Every structure is written in C-alpha cells, then in structure tokens.
Amino acid sequence: MLLHKFVDNLAQYFPDLHSTLTVHDFTRFATLASEVVFRSKGTISNEADSIIPFLRNALHLSLPKELCYQLWHTTQPNFNTMHIQPGHLIQQHGYSPDLTTKIPEYTLVSPVKQCLVCAKPHILQLRSRMDRYLYDVDGVHTASIVTLKCSGCSTHYRPSYHSKKKFAPTSHLRTGAMRISTRDKCSPNIDDSVFYILSASISNFNLANLFNRCYVDDVPLPPLAGAPKVRPKLSEVTCRDALDINSLLQKLESAGACLRVDTSVAPEHRYHKAMKAVVEWIALEGSKHHNHACSACVRVIPLPTADGRAKLGYIRAVVTDGITIGHWRCTATSEQLRELANVDGQPAPNGPCTTPLASVSDRFCPEHHNRLGKRCVAQPCKRDATNGTATCDLQEHVDAPPALGHC
After folding, report:
1. Where are the beta strands (DSSP E) in 75-192?
2. Half-sphere exposure of residue 294, counting CA atoms within 13 Å on the CB side?
C-alpha cells in the first residue's frame, strides 16, 4: 500500500485518529504489534481485545483506548509486510562485499568522552576503527572496535581500558566487552555463564567445543577486512583468558580498585601480577565456594623428605581460571600448629588444621582464633597486629593490604 493511500484511508474512515496520531506513536505501535503477531505464529492476529492492553502498557501510549483499537484495525492487514528483524538483517548483510561502509552488529567504544589522565580534561578524538568478532551467550557477532585518543597527553582509550606509556588501567564491565586478543572480544554475559558451567567441572576445552558446535561450525559468519582469514572459533585459550580477566575485574571492582597491567611485558604474563595479588588475598580471607571438591582441586602428591622415606601430601585449594575454588577451612598452617604444640608440650600434628570456618570472612577456626587471631595478616609473620590494624608495624606488611585494593 502506498503511504498516501494509507493516510487517505485514515482521514476517510477514522478522522479522529487521523487528526491525533503522531509519527512517534505510529512507528512504535506498528513495530511492536507486528513483532507480537510474528511471534504468535498467526494465532492472535485478530484478537485486538487481548493485545491492545499490552501495547498501551508497554508503549505508554497517549492515545485513548478507542483510538488504539482503530489503529490496530487499520494496521493489522499490513503486519506481515511491516515486520522485519533488524539484528538478523544486519548480521546477514552488514558485511556484504559490495558495501563500502560495513554495518556491524555492535559498536564498542570507550564509556568516557573526556581524558581521565590530563589535569585539564580534553575531548577525546577518533583514532581508528577495527572490525572484530564478539563472543556472547547467543553466538558470535560482528563488532566495530573504536579507539579514541587524547590530543593533550596521547592516552589511548579503547572499549574496556585506556593506556599510556606501558601501563593499561582496565575499566569496569559497563563497556559491554573485554578484549581477549587482537581479534577476539568476550561479553561479560558469556563469562558469567561460563563460570557457572565450569563450577560443574566442565573443562575449557569441552566448553569451547560446545560453543563452536552451536554457534560457529554451521553458521555463515562474514569474513572481516584486516582480520585473520580464519573461522571465528572460540579457542580454549580465549575461553580461559576471558575467565581470568573477568574474575580480576569483578574482584577489584568489588574492592573499588582499578585493574592495572604492564603492557611492556609479554601478553601471556601481563596479568600474572594482578592474579597473584588476588590469590594472596583470597588465601587470607577465604573463598565463598564452600565444600567444593573435585579431581581438579584435591590432589594427593609425593613430598620430598630429608630421610628419603616416602611421604604423601595433598593440595587443599587450587586456582582455576583465576577463581579460587577451595574450602572454608582454618588457615592455621602446619608450622603454626607445630609452634603451638611445642608451647603446650604436645606432639606436633600431622598436617594443617582441617576444621571448617564459621564464616568465609574468618581466618581461623574458633579454637585457633583465640591464639592466632591477633597475628599479622602478612603470613607467615609471627608478630601480633598493632591495635586497630590488620598487620604488625613492619612497613612492608603495612603496605601489603592496600596494594591488594583492600584496607
């Protein structure tokens, strides 16, 4: 139907609607109504009484109820031709070879518009765009990665972090994606979903294979200009790295801190310092994952002995994908227990204390808290913490908790 004929019909049969309807209300009404009819597979195409209340509520229409019914009856014959799926069309045709300007499914850009480094903030300027793949819970998408640059200090701003010289402070997750490699990005949604799957002891390898079978192997994905000519499969390494980075961001954001990494070191070692700091803190404070045990986190291992006789030990907690999966248990070490036993004139116990903690924030079980609870948190220091603090008066121990993003 031609537009002028549609307008003429409105004027002839529904004069009140013709003189009241705005372009804003018409486009939103037709878009949502055609989508509802499409999803119903034709089962409610004529049931205006059941659909109009939903449309008025969802769209906050200013039209009176009677005019909404008139608008439904006017547009209903055209719903099949009105309905489109913008996301699907962009995915299928956004990177057609004959297009000079490509249309990505997502555009990822820094959430800040002014420089955070300069004393006098400068407006950020466009530096470059890159076409990349974005991994999400519903599959692989095309994305345009926008890099901005400060004209004052030459700091570069990317969707998930900004960098100057050799350090790259990484921002929080509100940007919608994290850079994993030069051509891959992962959304926080997929990392959260992957974490819960991994908690059920599914390996990165199997998880990557599952994702690729569902979203890559039989799906036509457009090749990207300037990107490697490979299928955008989710690799085990990308999956692991995404979980590591997501865990670090979540941990530091909860502490009100910013993740800083040294870009002058090799990429595979860039996050090791930050991981070590988080793991050391969790070792003192405990883990929220209570009573988890699997073949990957509890292992019996041979230990070297001075007399050469065989001796077995076990690992009571491990770090998997940057997340500590262990047990709420007393952190009194074998050395500390031997020290206490020596004071009491008792034989040394075999191994560390295995008593569960009352809460994840405790360091020791109730019995050992009375004797070790006042000690400096920088273990294995044997000194008591000074009044009102968590550490002794040694400067290196005083500096340790703030370096981890905690007080």
Report:
1. 106-108, 125-136, 139-149, 156-157, 162-163, 167-170, 178-179, 184-186
2. 14
Q: What is the pLDDT of residue 23?
A: 92
227 exposure class (CB count in 10 Å sphere: 0-12, 13-18, 19+): middle
Strands 259-262 and 184-186, by their bridges, are: unpaired
Token pair listed for 208:
């990557």
Amino acid identity for residue 322 in this structure? G
3-class DSSP state of 315: strand
Distance between CA atoms of residues 405 and 128, nearest Å: 33
> Encoding tokens for residue 374?
């006042």
Q: What is the pTM of this model?
A: 0.53
- Tell me 319's DSSP state: E
Dist CA 160 CA 174 (whole Å): 8
At residue 278, φ and ψ (nearest 5 deg) are -65, -45
* Beta-sheet strands, E only, within 178-267: 178-179, 184-186, 259-262
Query: What string of DSSP letters covers 8-21?
Result: HHHHHH-HHHHHH-
Q: What is the pLDDT of residue 374?
A: 84
Residues whose CB falls within 8 Å of the CB of residue 111, separated by 6 or more in sequence, listed in order? 171, 174, 175
Give the chain's residues under pLDDT 70. Answer: 45-47, 165-203, 218-219, 225-231, 282-301, 312-329, 351, 360-361, 400-407
How do strand 259-262 and strand 167-170 relate by DSSP bridges? antiparallel
| CA–CA separation, 306 and 357 (whole Å) | 33
Task: Tell me how far apart the alpha carbons of residues 21 and 8 are, in angstroms, rounded to a whole number.
Answer: 14
Could you tell me which residues are beta bridge partners of residue 221? none
**Backbone φ and ψ of 179, nearest 5°:** -80, 130
DSSP letter at 40? T
Query: Which H or E run includes 188?
Result: helix 188-198
Burial of 252 (0-12, 13-18, 19+ CB in 10 A): buried
Beta-bridged to residue 146, according to DSSP, are 129
Determine the pLDDT at residue 25.
92
